[in-house]
Amino acid sequence: MLSNSLIELDRAHLIHPVTSYRGHEATGVKVLRSAEGATVTDASGHQLVDGFAGLWCVNAGYGHESIVAAASRQMRELPYATGYFSLGSEPAIRLAAELAQRAPGDLDHVYFTLGGSDAVDSSVRFIRYYWHARGEPQRDQFISIEQGYHGSSTVGAGLTALSTFHAGFGVPLSWQHKIPSHYVYRNPAGHDGNAIIAASLAALDAKIAEIGGPQRVAAFYAEPIQGSGGVLVPPKGWMKAMRARCQAYGILFVADEVITGFGRTGPLFACSEDEIVPDIMTVAKGLTSGYVPMGAVFLSDHVYGTIADAAGSSAVGQGYTYSAHPVSAAVALEVLRLYEIGLLANGVKAGARLMAGLQSLKDHPLVGDVRGRGMLAAIELVTDKKQKTPLPIAAEPARRIFDRAWKNGLIIRAFPTGVLGYAPPLCCSDSDIEAIIERTAKTLDETLADADVRAALQH
Ligand code: PLP
Keywords of this protein's UniProt record, alphabetized (predicted)? Predict the structure, then answer.
């Protein structure tokens, strides 16, 4: 069978991202064959609702002929153009202008990358250059947040605060520091939003003092909602308060919108809803809806202007062969059009339904917390709701939950912390959302029936 030979070829040759290599060799790959709307079909014909939009990226859903047409038109006309030597292509220029027009405040200058990790990496390079240009090269320390994720380049993995990305890789680097997350469900400051904001501000103040004062700190990185850390939604006003405190210190504020951008939480950018204008913003994923790779860094007028003035007639040494790739740009322009003719609006409607559906599972014996914003949500499983005892991971690896959901026709993200993540395509219909909720309920019941989980519940 074709699929068996593919499994063998995969086992022998394909290295998968963020995967246990030996575990994967034992279980083998699940091959996806086709997709339409919010539904994907595997090589055996099994159909699943993609409750995670690939990897929080296929915001527009699968099978958009107009996106395919935009890519093929561009491939035929001009498949590649470098941005070096002051060259460019029409779609890249138009895309930069369209994005600048929609981005918060004066984030008017756009540098295109291939994805999120290199967007974060590039942002760090711009920030370092900026502080050199300002005559403050000693501002070389960076602060980010526990449970945060900022990619898996060496620099991004160091800003990340998830142990899988650190162990054995020699990161974080000495100039990368963390403060605790706002993690509302498990915050030592309690559930009150103002208390959590006050605790985060105090933690930021303390960290800055520990580093040697604001004159040592280059930038602070925050995701509007922490995605890979388990969909951690900060209390209302958290981003605004942190942004204001950074501004008071003269520290650059970077919003990493790689997941939250492009309608995932409702508007085109979550920062607008948070009522902030960061100094720098990074995006990827929904920019092209995952059809082709592309990310971007937005620089505000003052950051761009400072860098440009300092470099003068010299080149700013930051660039990739595939920066501002015309095919990716053509795709992104079409995806942007789709967002604005209905996808964003549908995402808001479907997101409200998703949250209501997940809330209806709150009384399930395993559900400790339900959280989210728009089409970005999670439920956190516990074996004791009062004590918030995490699911016993040794007994119930995330993989088993993932596999149960898969059999039930649903793709979700099962984090090793017992958190189930949801980020469905924004095109989801009412019946797609109903299927996500029903199949989640079935998966939870099956998990509850698991002998190891029952044993943990009895303790
Ligand atoms: N930043 C954030 C907030 C992310 O969630 C991710 C990926 O999930 C990245 C950066 C890295 O993006 P990529 O996987 O496209 O390199």
Answer: Aminotransferase, Pyridoxal phosphate, Transferase
